[in-house]
Design a protein that fits this description.
With 165 residues, the chain is mostly helical. Helix content is 81%, strand content 0%. It comes from Bradyrhizobium xenonodulans.
C-alpha cells in the first residue's frame, strides 16, 4: 500500500517536471511571438495582389462587348455602365485615383450629348490610368498588368465611341 509520505514524495518529485513543462511552454510562446514580430510589418494585401485591377479589366472588356450593338447616347450609357462595373470590381487596395477616375468618366459619359464629350471623358480617364501604370511599373508593383488591361479597355471604349458614337 502507498503511504502518505510516499505520496508526498511523488508529488514533490512531480513538481520539478511540471515546472520544466511550464517553462518549455513559456519558451514556445516566446518563440512564437518572436516569429510574429519577425514578419515584416509592411506586408499587406495590396502587396499580395493587384488591387482587383486585373479583374476590373476583364469585367470591363466583357461589358464593352455588350455595347457593340448600340450607338449614340445609348452607347455612352452602356460604356458608363461598364466603367461603373470596373470601378466596383476594384478592391480597397487599388489606387484611390482609379476608383475616382472611373466614376468620374462614367458620370461624364452619362452627361455627354455628343461624341466629342464622350471621347473627352474616356481620354481623361485613360490619362489617369496611364500615369498609374507608369508609377506601378517604376515601383515594380503587381498591379501594373491589371492597370494596363484597364487602359486597353478604355482604348477599346474610345474606338467604339469613335466608330459608333
Amino acid at each position: 500500500m502507498i503511504s502518505e509520505s510516499n505520496m508526498l514524495k511523488s508529488a514533490e518529485l512531480g513538481r520539478p517536471g511540471r515546472r520544466r513543462g511550464l517553462m518549455a511552454n513559456g519558451v514556445r510562446i516566446i518563440m512564437a511571438l518572436v516569429m510574429l514580430l519577425a514578419v515584416p510589418l509592411g506586408t499587406n494585401p495590396a502587396q499580395a495582389g493587384d488591387g482587383g485591377t486585373g479583374a476590373a479589366g476583364a469585367v470591363g472588356s466583357a461589358s464593352l462587348e455588350a455595347c457593340r450593338t448600340t450607338s449614340g447616347k445609348v452607347l455612352y450609357d452602356c460604356v458608363a455602365n461598364a466603367l461603373d462595373k470596373m470601378s466596383t470590381t476594384l478592391t480597397k487596395w487599388a489606387p484611390p485615383e482609379a476608383h475616382s477616375a472611373l466614376q468620374t468618366a462614367a458620370s461624364q459619359l452619362r452627361a455627354a450629348s455628343n461624341k466629342a464629350q464622350a471621347l473627352s471623358a474616356i481620354a481623361q480617364c485613360r490619362s489617369v490610368f496611364a500615369g498609374l501604370v507608369k508609377q506601378a511599373t517604376a515601383a515594380k508593383q503587381q498591379s501594373a498588368p491589371g492597370l494596363s488591361a484597364i487602359v486597353g479597355v478604355l482604348s477599346k471604349a474610345a474606338a467604339l465611341i469613335q466608330a459608333k458614337g
